[in-house]
Amino acid sequence: MTLTVYNTLTRKKEPFTPIEEGKVRMYCCGITVYDYCHLGHARTCMVWDVVRQYLQWRGHDVTYIQNFTDIDDKILNRARKENSTMEAVSERFIEAYFEDMERLGVQKADAYPRATHTLNGIQRLVSELEAKGYAYASEGDVYYNVRQFKGYGKLSGRKLEDLQAGASGRVTVEDPEASKKKDPADFAVWKAAKPGEPAWDSPWGKGRPGWHIECSAMVRERLGETIDIHVGGSDLIFPHHENEIAQSEAATGHPLARYWLHNGMVKVGGEKMSKSLGNFTTIRDLLEKIEPMAVRLFILQAHYRKPVDFTDEALAAATNGWQTLSEGLLFGFQHGERLGFKRDMPELLPEFVQRFQAAVDDDFNFAGGLAVLFEIAKELRKEGNLLVHQGTTENSSDELQRQWYTLRTLAHVLGLEADINQLKPEQSDGLDDGEIEALIEQRKEARKNKNFAESDRIRDELKEQGIILVDQAGGVTSWHRG
C-alpha cells in the first residue's frame, strides 16, 4: 500500500516519497506563547503528532521539530499589562503548553527551537537575502521585496497584484510602515527597535526579527535547506508559509519543502475559534469537563483538512465513543486472567491491520482508521458482556487475545490509551447497556407524561450506578459511564 497525502502546494493528492529513504524531516509551525492554548492549538499539535507517530509506525525514522514564537507584539503587550517581561511571559506559557499537551497525550517533538535562540541564524539569512537583492534596509527596518521573487503566491494561489497593504498578517490595513516600503505587499524580516522594547544588535542597528523569518531560519538550522513535510494550520498558508517559501527559496535556490500539509480550523457557531474573537475555550478549562482521550477522539473523528465544529453535542458523542473504545482497550486487563490470556504477545490480526492502514494511507484518514478500532472494541464489549452475564464467550480465548492486542496496537498509533487505574469491577455488579437504555426510555416516557418526580428518580438511580445522562436538543438523551 502507498501512502498518499494532499499537498497544498500542488493542490492534489500525491504519493509520499521522502527525500532520503526511510527518513522523514518534518517541521510544524508552533504557537506564539502569550496565553494558554485553546482547542484550536490542540487540534494542530495533536494532528501532526499523530501523523508523526503513524509515519514511525510505517517504518520511517522521523525527525520532528516544532517551534515557539517568543518574540511578538502580543507577548510584549501581555508583559506590559502584567508589569512583567517578554521572557517571563514566554516561559510561563511554554510551561503551560507542555502541561496541557502531556494531559492530551501529545508526544514531545525532537526539539523546540525559539526565535530568541535562533537570532544568529535569522540575521545570517536576512544578510543573504539583502546581498542577493531580495531584501532592502529602510530606516532601521529590513523588508523582503516580494516582486523580486518570481514564484510569490504559488502556495496560496494569490496573485501579487491583488494583494493589499497589511499582507504581512500582523499589521493593519492602515500600515504604519507603508512609507518605508517599496511595495505595500513587502514584509519586514527585521524591525528597528522601539522605545522600551527588547532589542538585539544587528548590522542594521538594534531591533528584532519579523515573524516570518523566524521559521525559515529554524527550518534551515535544524533540518536543512529542503525538508520532507512542512505542516501547520490552514490559517498560516497566507501570509506566513507563503513568505517562508519566498525567503528560504530565494536564499538557498532549493525548494523549502516537498509536501505542504495544513489542518482545518476549529469553529464555534461557524466562526473560527480564536483569541481575537473571544470564542475560544482553553484546553485546561475543557479538561475540567471532559476527559483528555474524549477530546482526542473528538479531534481525530474529523478529517484533518476539514473544519470541525465545537459543540456540546459533539463532545457528548465523543465521550460516549471513548467509553466504547475504553471498554475494548481494558478488556484484557479486566477479563484476561479469567480467559487464560498468555503472557506472550500474539500476532496482530492482519485483516484489521490492513484495513486500518488502507484507510490512514489515504491522506491520513484517521476517521477511517477509527472505524476499524470501533469495530473491534464493540466486538470485545459484546464478548465481555457475555462472559459477565453468561459465563462464556462466542470466540476462543486465543482469538479474543489477538483482537485485544490488535486494538491496543492500532489505538496506540493514534495516541488513544485507556487508564488501567480507572478499571472498575466487572459489570455484574452494575447495569449493562440494555438495562441502561431501558431506564432511559422509562425516563423519557415519564417526562412526556410530565411525571418529573419519576424522571428525576431514574436519573438519580442511574447516577448512583455511575451513569451520566446528557440531555440534548430534540429530546435525545446520550449517556456515558462516569
Would you identify the regions where 5 or more consecutive residues have pLDDT less than 50? 165-173
Principal-axes geometry comes out as elongated
Spell out the helices and strands N to C. Answer: EEEHEHHHEEEEHEHEEEHHEHHHHHHHEE
Strand order of the largest sheet: 4-3-9-10
Mean pLDDT across every amino acid position: 92
Helix content: 40-55%
Structural class: alpha/beta
Question: Could you give the count of β-strands?
Answer: 15
- State the helix count: 15
Computed CA radius of gyration, to the nearest angstrom = 26 Å
- Percent range for β-strand residues: 15-25%
Distance between the amino and carboxyl termini: 40 Å
Biggest sheet features? 4 strands, parallel
What does this entry look like structurally?
This protein is α/β, with parallel strands linked by helices and 482 residues long. The chain is built from 15 helices and 15 strands. Strands 4-3-9-10 form a four-stranded parallel β-sheet, sandwiched between helices. Strands 5-6-7-8 form a four-stranded antiparallel β-sheet. The radius of gyration is 26 Å and the shape is elongated. It starts with a strand and ends with a strand. Mean pLDDT is 92; it is low at 165-173.
Describe the SSE topology.
Layout: E1 4-7, E2 12-15, E3 23-32, H1 39-57, E4 61-69, H2 73-81, H3 86-103, H4 119-131, E5 135-138, E6 141-144, E7 187-192, E8 207-209, H5 211-223, E9 227-233, H6 237-252, E10 257-263, E11 266-268, E12 271-272, H7 283-286, H8 292-300, E13 308-309, H9 312-329, H10 331-339, H11 350-360, H12 366-390, H13 397-413, H14 433-448, H15 452-464, E14 467-471, E15 477-481
Parallel strand pairs: 3-4, 3-9, 9-10, 11-13
Antiparallel strand pairs: 1-2, 5-6, 6-7, 7-8, 11-12, 14-15
Helix pairs in contact: 2-3, 4-5, 5-6, 8-9, 9-12, 10-13, 11-12, 12-13, 14-15
